[in-house]
Amino acid sequence: MSNERHPETDADAVIFASGGMRLQTLVYIRWLAVLGQAFTVVIVQFGFGYHLPMVPVIALIGASALLNLLVSLSRKSTARLPDRGAILYLFYDILQLTGLLYFTGGLTNPFSVLFLVPVTISATNLSRRGTVFLGLITFTAISALAVFYEPLPLPEGSLRLSEIYILTIWAALVLGSLFLSGYAWLIAADARKMSDALTVARFELAREQQLSAVGGIAAAAAHELGTPLNTILLVSEELAQELPAGSPAAEDAGLLHDQAKKCAEVLAQLSRRPDTQRFLQDSAHHNYLALDSIFELIAQQYSDAGTEVAIQSHGDAATKPRLYLNPELRFALGNLISNAVEFAAHQVSIDLYWNDKLVRAEIRDDGPGFSEEILGRLGEPYMTTRRGKGGMGLGVFIADMMIKRSGGELTFGNRKTGGAIVEILWPRPRLEKSDPFRKSMVL
To answer: Does residue 3 sit within a domain?
Structure first.
């Protein structure tokens, strides 16, 4: 069984529940476009004295306004359009803009630059397939307008644009659409990936904190139930001895004693579990542990994996670092040790070093090591790492984020003798600053 944690499988619903694009955003953008188009037509027609084909122009603008009104009335303002719905929404906008530009000069119209808006919105919010589709529609529309359009009714003697200049406008719009959509897609994809990973990180951290709280409650319950259970054991044993042997009452008393004894064994095991009694309890005093004790407690969780985990301390025992073990640090170290155990052939070695200024931990395994092509990208979300095996995508990302939150830095590498090595380096004052008793001592 794999020991590696896969938080991405636990929080998929959390991530993808927020997919799609907010309908109200697209409605606002279209209202701005309608108002801008209407204002421009009025200025050109009545302010500059150009005679535009008003009937088809007003019909196209009115169609957008009517469609926007119908969408606003038929759908809730909080609704989110799926990918396909948003693509169709933007597809109409491209067609409407193409119709307006056809009647108002084609690519010679300065407002042809608005073709960049739908593809940029798509690249920022929608899927790659949808962005490619809208990009092809935009390319087709721009190419058609370079050839087919109604010229602007310019006054006699006005400058006439040559075909070569129109061709350069076409090239600028096509290249601009490609560049902006590609650039926006890369930036948005990176932001989405980071946002999704942070969502999973928060989900996992909340779960760790919940498990820690449950562990504390379980330990407290085991302690509180110990006294009444011992009383039941004592009374049931005395009843079994006093009742006539072989009688139904004696058998019932014996059965009660056996079942109570089993309950006592379960409570004893529960109290001895690292995550209830020694790992994190409701009392901060029990969580303030020496550095090697913390690694030993976490390594105990993987003792059944068949891989030996050897921990060695290299430093003055009198100056051994002590720190408060919180869920974040436990989760981070647990992920790193879990991955080392999974990929190790036989053994995982953990070496701890410290002095007055620094604390360093090295986690080494004798497995295949990290592949060279992604060694420099470890710590990025959704990154699979080792040769022939997946995993360590969000796990390493979350561990790296939580180690940094504790003031440390993670470094990944491969050993010359084979296997991987993970180094954690903390400034000692930063690592020990969470001493729950230091503040009261200072005061």
So the answer is: no
The answer on 248 and 196 residing in a single domain is no
Asked if residue 398 lies in contact with residue 201, where contact means CB atoms within 8 angstroms, the answer is: yes
Q: Give the residue numbers spanning the domain of 89.
A: 9-203
Q: Please report the pLDDT score of residue 350 as a whole number.
A: 93
Where helices occur in 273-390 by DSSP H, the ranges are 284-287, 291-299, 327-343
Angstrom distance (rounded) from CA 186 to CA 181: 9
Mean pLDDT by 10 residues, the chain (443 residues): 43 46 86 92 85 91 93 80 87 94 90 90 86 93 92 71 87 91 81 66 62 58 71 80 80 82 73 45 58 88 81 89 81 87 89 92 90 75 53 69 84 87 90 56 38
Q: What is the largest CA-CA distance in the chain?
A: 126
Number of domains the chain is built from = 3
**In angstroms, how far is CA 336 from the centroid of its own chain?**
18
Q: Both 402 and 301 in a single domain?
A: yes
Assess if residue 360 is contained within a domain: yes
**C-alpha distance from residue 132 to each of 29, 139, 354 (Å):** 21, 10, 55
Q: Round to whole Å and give the CA distance between 432 and 436.
A: 10
The torsion angles phi and psi of 148, rounded to 5 degrees, stand at: -110, 115
